[in-house]
Protein: AzlD domain-containing protein
Amino acid sequence: MTNYILITILLAGLVTWLSRVVPFAIIKNLTVPRWLINFLSFVPVAIMTAIFIESLLIYHAGHWPGFNLENIYASIPAIVAGVLTKSLLAVVITGVLAMAAIRLLGWG
Structure:
């Protein structure tokens, strides 16, 4: 491994670490307004929804997106597990097992 690659990896790690630590260090000494905390409480839901919907679509340049049936089929039992258990771990395990079964059976 050349020095250039090693320095690049170390600097990328430093930037990643700083981008995660600095906001906490800054906000630690500030009082955050209640309306901002309420607003930020919706951010994880919005991000997860965007990631979920994006994984269900297949993009084609210049055309409407198509559907990724394999991911749609696997998401159905995962959504049911989420509604029934309210557990992220149950959703992830159900989704992984559903995708494994779909690929094993060739339903994709």
